[in-house]
Amino acid sequence: MRLIPWAMRAVVPFVALLSLGVLASAQQHAHTAQPASPPAVGQRTPAPQDAYVYIGWPNEGQTLSAGRIKIWFGARNVGVAPAGVNFANTGHHHLLINVPIPPLDEPIPNTKNHLHFGAGQTEAFIDLSPGTYTLQLLMGDAEHVPHDPPITSKKITIHVR
Amino acid sequence: MMKRVRYGAFAFVSTLLLATHLNAQSQPPPEGARVYIIWPGDGQVIRRGKYWLRMGLSGAGVAPAGVDKPNTGHHHVLIDTELPALDREIPNDKNHLHFGRGQTEARIELPPGQHTLQLLFGDANHVPHQPPLYSSKITVIVKP
């Protein structure tokens, strides 16, 4: 006992506690994070059962004033995660403006007609000039590829004047 | 010997304090971010007690619990309770529901009567942001 400097002995509880802390946080992480393994190449991420997305605002056929228009994204039976995050039963929103659903076996294009919300946003403000527009949501997985089957909203038409 | 024991105890306690402090380090929220309850509205009467609660978030993103990304967090619904301590993990019980799988809607069932609902955003470790992001507290009336 005498051979171990007492300062060392004081350090022992530190080290023991620190490793306990690491264990505890690792356990918590395992408990909460539940990461999904990324799908194999050429395989799309399965959609959770009964998952669907919808445009909560604006409504079908609505007429709005030109300018900044708020759009909110509804997601039921599916969670939201930022792009790049592989987590079971999640995805992130994409807003399609005036375009049909793109090919489903590749990443959703990133253009002014295909807006990505890869930071996990659940609403957006978009600037629209007068005209008629179609809006549709399409969820993408961590790699921006639609799920299988795709999680997509009804396509709505709005009028901006 | 007594001195050593005391030193050991001091080391023990200070480690605990340090660990608590490290665990409680919370993320700053993005500027202008806010959380709000989209539905139901304040004073809403709900029939049969079961409904979908819709959680709104402006100026920030949703990420599942355990995912440490700047400007994100996940929703917690507080039912019939005050805001908990804001410098530590949000409790996990029937009054503090966690939506750590990135959910933005939840099926909630409440017994008949008057209930309060409030959202509180938490970071990857379920700790509120600093300053915290929470919605205004609403009241709903559940009819049988």
Describe this structure in words.
The complex is a heterodimer of chains A (161) and B (144). Chain A has two domains: 34 residues; 109 residues, Sandwich (Immunoglobulin-like), CATH 2.60.40.10. Helix content of chain A is 17%, strand content 32%. In chain A, the strands form two sheets. In chain A, strands 2, 4, 5, 6, 8 and 9 form a six-stranded mixed β-sheet that branches. A three-stranded antiparallel β-sheet of chain A has the order 1-3-7, with no helix packed on it. The longest helix of chain A is centred in the first third of the chain and has 28 residues. Chain A is elongated, with a radius of gyration of 23 Å. Chain B is an alpha+beta fold. The longest helix of chain B is centred in the N-terminal third of the chain and has 22 residues. Chain B is elongated, with a radius of gyration of 19 Å. The N and C termini of chain B lie far apart (68 Å).
Using only C-alpha atoms, the radius of gyration of chain B works out to: 19 Å
Give a quick account of the main beta sheet of chain A: strands, pairing sense, barrel closure.
Answer: 6 strands, mixed
CATH architecture of chain B: Sandwich
* Rounded mean pLDDT score of chain B: 87
Strand pairing plus helix content of chain B: what structural class?
alpha+beta
> In oligomeric terms, what are we looking at?
heterodimer
